[in-house]
Amino acid sequence: MNLLLKEIRHNPLLWLLVFVPVVFVTEKLKPEAHTLLFVLSVLAIVPLAAMLSHATESVAAKTGDAVGGLLNATLGNLTELVIALTALRAGQYMLVKASIAGAIVTNTLFMLGASFLLGGFKYHVQEYNRVSARLQAGLLFLATVALLIPSAISRADPVAGAAITQKLSVGLAVLLIVAYGLGMLFSLKTHRELFASAEHGEGGEAPWPIGLALATLAGVTLLVALVSEVFVESVQKAAEAFGMTPAFVGFIIVALVGGAAEMASAFSGARKNRLDLSVGIALGSASQIALFVAPVLVLVSYFIGPTPMDLQFWPGAVVMIFLGTLTACLVTNSGRSTWFVGVLVLMVYAIFAMTLYQLPPRSQ
Amino acid sequence: MNLLLKEIRHNPLLWLLVFVPVVFVTEKLKPEAHTLLFVLSVLAIVPLAAMLSHATESVAAKTGDAVGGLLNATLGNLTELVIALTALRAGQYMLVKASIAGAIVTNTLFMLGASFLLGGFKYHVQEYNRVSARLQAGLLFLATVALLIPSAISRADPVAGAAITQKLSVGLAVLLIVAYGLGMLFSLKTHRELFASAEHGEGGEAPWPIGLALATLAGVTLLVALVSEVFVESVQKAAEAFGMTPAFVGFIIVALVGGAAEMASAFSGARKNRLDLSVGIALGSASQIALFVAPVLVLVSYFIGPTPMDLQFWPGAVVMIFLGTLTACLVTNSGRSTWFVGVLVLMVYAIFAMTLYQLPPRSQ
Amino acid sequence: MNLLLKEIRHNPLLWLLVFVPVVFVTEKLKPEAHTLLFVLSVLAIVPLAAMLSHATESVAAKTGDAVGGLLNATLGNLTELVIALTALRAGQYMLVKASIAGAIVTNTLFMLGASFLLGGFKYHVQEYNRVSARLQAGLLFLATVALLIPSAISRADPVAGAAITQKLSVGLAVLLIVAYGLGMLFSLKTHRELFASAEHGEGGEAPWPIGLALATLAGVTLLVALVSEVFVESVQKAAEAFGMTPAFVGFIIVALVGGAAEMASAFSGARKNRLDLSVGIALGSASQIALFVAPVLVLVSYFIGPTPMDLQFWPGAVVMIFLGTLTACLVTNSGRSTWFVGVLVLMVYAIFAMTLYQLPPRSQ
């Protein structure tokens, strides 16, 4: 605990933690001040993300980058899961689906691309474990196929599509969860040696003891989740004030803020030349949302939502997920990165963001 | 011949050969017992497939894995060709197309994935000749483009599509056969050294003499073809009794049973750490159906069918062929395999199978 | 200048240069003789292309293959830019778009495939710098995403699509030009060592001095542009006389003749075992048209066209651009080539050409 306080005293970024209680107080006192709540919740999420980043790195230092990355992805995506569950309970399936699709695309393109770019500014050429990257890209590709098929069948044959989407979605959800579990078995158990890092950076700050790190991970994740709820409630109204479309908000803003914690870790890894950590977090996080969060939401929707949710997405979102996954597959194939690879990946993301920003409100 | 009888006596699986005459007798006596005939024909195809497997391996032992694989694919696909020709003569173009699309997808995903999985259970990491795999994947990609374009044009512009599909299909058929011939020239003649196996397994059973092997290959292939015809006649009715949709039957069941012979060879190769043989059979078989069987059927349809057949497929089937080929291209890129790669490929297949199983009868 | 005349005297191909003035004179005297003008202009472009090829190689000999390739692509595409600007001024957006799409596909598939094939006839296996090829393929992939998204959104949601296409196109155009500029910065400045050639051929003819080479490059490019204009004016009428569809003319004929200069260089490089040069020209030229020529035309259309032009293409063209780019990505992944790789790539092109040839005039 002393270590934690010392850390906070020495890191000015963590002083922003003061906004965490401010958010909760403001929400109680002025629940209708959406734009204010929106700004406050973003300010509160940033330092929480930074703490999460340091805690995860401390655990990663003990367990190896790949496992650390997986752990980070799992905890980081609690945020997305909590957000989506809240929206699910309210029957806002559009928002749930937009935030799922957005989180996949944002993690695959923005988090990966920005990691390559930030790393590339500091190092001429960076290498990373391509076996690990390929596993994640493969899982992501599988999930993309699962999300693509119901939409493709529906477009090819609307009557048939409508009749089977709901039943098919449940089957696909079970399949994806099984694939996710087998992927964990593979990477953590039977073939864990393949996931060793290609090369380590120079180290960085002293890691926390494992107990403190784990406790911080858990506690801070909870706080992120609580603040994120305030954020989600306020973001739609705040977005209108700023003139953004709902599609852009769900797909880009929610995904960027929801993934802030993992991004802090991924970017910090890239700048320490530990690109394995960055790629592991970015692709691992994307495939976890696609293979675990999305199917869990489908299954849970039978119990908590007003009606069951299916896996059929807005066709434009399916195209974006498919192109994002294809980009990740092509880019991670070489196991090497430079700043320009980051630019290319970010540009694909920028094309999507630009399109969504100009989409009329009626769509998606 | 003695060697053959000895083989049969020592291998309990081959005792199932007794079902071959039983099928023919039952068909004569009770031609309307569809479910019985269905079960009997499957039981008869299994041992025939096993014999074909051993004969092919004997030839492969003399000629190198890649050539053996090609030979196997050529003979193995006689089954599919005979089935399709029968259906063609009856004007059942839906069934012909479903079985072509299904055979491509089943060979690309199920046969390849199950080979990786079975091999991966026995060996930690398996390596195979990626140059050979890339050639096959490249041929398959080419065929996919040829099957995709008529459908894509039709969807983009229905009037234009309908006007040109028939003429275009003949041109594409000729083009594909030329590409198939040039691919053989390349792999068997000008660059055959590229197709040498990456590494050989420990050997396996003693191979048959080449004469016996070739005679068995020819004779057993004929029997498989005859039994397959009974199978096809009975499968639709039997499927209804079991509650399966026509799409599922054409795409999955016909393709699985039709490819049983090659699967036995591919799986046996994988378990003997001769993954070159397995990958060669799986992708070679898929590309042979796409580049040779399908175009031959289009050309032959001008002579034996009631009306000519074109190359325009149900859009859902095109999407599945495209995704299957993309999976094969991405997966075979590394030349290495583990059990989880098999799981990923099989999962893509399972997604397709699940979708087709729930498709209403009206579709496809 | 003496050197230039000596060159012309010794190279029979260059004697065709006599057709350059003949074209201009014929155009003045018989402007309605379309078929004659078409044939004359093709005959005049061939020797100009040959000279351009030699001049570019002379510069490339001084600057390294990758830079030479880039230079060649930049000057070679002046032709396409001039053609497109003329059509734009006349408001012929269909022709502009068809020639853009056609130039991308023709460079990606025909120029690349024929280089592989011609090189493969002379050399058993050829190697080239795959880092450079991957950069070009990556840029091309990015441009494909940018061209695909407006069309995909429009198909997914026609009302939304129509509303945003124009504004979106301007944004995408700016984005693509920025990406193109950053790509130049990367390949010519920060990471130029990655673009060194994998291996050099035996040399070839003596290079021209740099001054003469640069002057020839500039002058001949201008002549190509002037002759190309005559060619474009005559090609549509001549095509009708030969019975070709407008889609085929715009996509295939204009692109083939417009790219003749670069093709001469690319093919000559392939036959001298300098495949880096060939791949650099083919993919560099395709990505330059997608990332530079097309966006410039969109922006310029606000000043010189009757109405602004957008980036939404005929869906069939988008499918072809996407499949062409995917082919290039898959094929250049290994950095090795044989004649059969060339056959595969050319076959994909042949499928497209065959489809466009049979498309009814109404389409595209």
Topology of this protein?
The structure is a homotrimer of 364-residue chains.
Chain A: H1 2-10, H2 19-29, H3 34-63, H4 65-89, H5 93-122, E1 126-127, H6 130-156, H7 158-190, H8 210-242, H9 246-258, H10 260-271, H11 275-304, H12 315-331, E2 336-337, H13 339-358
Antiparallel strand pairs in A: 1-2
Structural account:
With 364 residues, the first copy, chain A, is mainly alpha-helical. The first copy, chain A, is built from 13 helices and 2 strands, in the order H-H-H-H-H-E-H-H-H-H-H-H-H-E-H. Chain A has helices at 2-10, 19-29, 34-63, 65-89, 93-122, 130-156, 158-190, 210-242, 246-258, 260-271, 275-304, 315-331, 339-358; strands at 126-127, 336-337. A two-stranded antiparallel ribbon of chain A has the order 1-2. In chain A, helix 5 (93-122) crosses helix 9 and helix 5 (93-122) packs parallel to helix 10 (260-271). The relative contact order of chain A is 0.21. Residues 198-204 of chain A have low confidence and may be disordered. At the A-B interface, helix 6 and helix 7 of A face helix 12 and helix 13 of B.
How would you classify the helix and strand content of chain A by structural class?
mainly alpha
Please write the string of helix (H) and strand (E) elements of chain A.
HHHHHEHHHHHHHEH
Question: Quick one: which chains have the greatest interface?
Answer: A-B, 36 and 30 residues
User: What is the CA-CA span between the terminal residues of chain A?
Assistant: 47 Å
SS field, number of helical segments of chain A = 13
Q: Overall mean pLDDT score of chain A?
A: 81
Radius of gyration of CA atoms of chain A, rounded to a whole number = 20 Å
Strand arrangement within the widest β-sheet of chain A reads 1-2
- Spans of chain A of at least 5 consecutive residues whose pLDDT stays below 50 are 198-204
Largest sheet properties of chain A = 2 strands, antiparallel
- The shape of chain A, in one word, is globular
**Quaternary state, please?**
homotrimer
What is the percentage of strand-forming residues of chain A? under 5%
Number of strands of chain A: 2
Q: What is the helix content of chain A?
A: over 70%
